[in-house]
């Protein structure tokens, strides 16, 4: 056995060297040929789901190996007997001549002739396979060879385990890739890092500032109206930075209920409050070594601003209910459509936090300030709509482009995307009904008009808008929410609540009501749930 020690070491080295199990088995068979009367070496795996034994690797010496008999099927009783033997760790032997016992007949493929030694790989409670060593018809095994095969079972167990993990990783990778393709398909994109439309035209100044700041770790504040593409620019900063391979976490500060802000941002320990059934990492921990994008940071209440400032100053967080400081390495990119300097003057936003996050501000232009980008954006959205809705791609015509560039775009790029989606659906793959889509989107008439596609013509929209006073977005939103509350008698959640009527999450509705100072109790009636 001493002379076999060096061979066993070489087998272990080979078992840990190659990822491909077939290559390892062939190499090990050649290594063993000088110490064992070996003609064939087979690795077979138990497949409990299908009640069978699969031949997953094969090696041999001196002849071309057959690929026959890759699988042996067993019934439930036979599989039970095989597993019971495997748990004993005993090596089975079949000598030359005679009929193989029932166990060996199942363990050894029919095309393997002569003497064989069979040992269970991964013995104990959960055997994973068997090792079959065949001497052929002209050679014989000795007692010492049985001991050698016993020593080989452990390195082949490592080979099977490595192969299982590799297959598991491959399966997870395929699933992740399928999820990625599905997400990109829903977004109408071919890649997460698509070129930003207007990078060389309407957004040239913005992208120059992005390039300047991306390689540093200073906080960035992106300013711009709703729908101007603040998240796209934030992702561009992240992707161009040294943190590009790390996580990019987006947090909508306006959608987090005030009582959950600490838990969402900093995490909580199990049992720290009612409902905290497990320890949870907050967004700061999840964004470690990456970028945390705080969208609509102006919506954070003052107490949360204090705690955020403390994290930005020293880089440490403390989970709700915890007593241990946790260091986080996070780059902050914030965004808002609000007038933060004005909020500072009004005492609604902390001045020290303003100075901390506004180290490098980037202001995004409105869509009507970069009209040269509208044709390219329209084509991008038309391609996205075709992918999302399963339609034939239709290129916008010159008349379509003229209608789009004549429109004021109060909703910026987000509104343009919605108009193109609507135009693609109305055109049903034959055309883009831009004029109808613009009219339906801008008309404030009855829902029936919107549903039927009727409305004011796109060419008359600017004049119509100028002829009548237009309320601010906050005022219009307040009136709309109050109408929903009146219709639901102050009910917010549930089947007949305002949140369902408006098609938004109840937490989001409450956050907007707090921002707009809407008191739901004014609409409450006795008996309303």
Task: Give average pLDDT, whole number.
Answer: 83
Number of strands: 13
Low-confidence stretches: 443-468
Question: What is the radius of gyration?
Answer: 34 Å
Notes on the structure:
By secondary structure, the chain is an alpha/beta fold. The chain has four domains: 2-166, Beta-Lactamase; 209-364, Rossmann fold (3-Layer(aba) Sandwich), CATH 3.40.50; 370-458, Helicase, Ruva Protein, domain 3 (Orthogonal Bundle), CATH 1.10.8.60; 473-523, no CATH class. Helix content is 46%, strand content 13%. It is built from 21 helices and 13 strands. The strands form three sheets. Strands 3-2-1-6-5-4 form a six-stranded antiparallel sheet. The model is unreliable at 443-468 (pLDDT under 50).
In short:
The chain is an alpha/beta fold and 529 residues long.
Descriptive labels:
Beta-Lactamase; alpha/beta; 529 residues; Rossmann fold; five-stranded parallel sheet; single chain; 21 helices; elongated; Helicase, Ruva Protein, domain 3; six-stranded antiparallel sheet; 4 domains; 13 strands
What layout of secondary structure does this protein have?
Elements: H1 2-17, H2 21-32, E1 40-47, E2 52-60, E3 71-73, H3 76-88, E4 92-94, H4 102-107, E5 115-121, E6 129-136, H5 143-187, H6 204-214, E7 220-223, H7 230-240, E8 248-252, H8 261-266, H9 283-286, E9 290-295, H10 302-314, E10 316-317, E11 326-327, E12 330-336, H11 340-345, H12 351-357, E13 360-363, H13 374-389, H14 398-406, H15 412-427, H16 434-442, H17 447-452, H18 461-467, H19 473-487, H20 498-502, H21 506-516
Parallel strand pairs: 7-12, 7-13, 8-9, 9-12
Antiparallel strand pairs: 1-2, 1-6, 2-3, 4-5, 5-6, 10-11
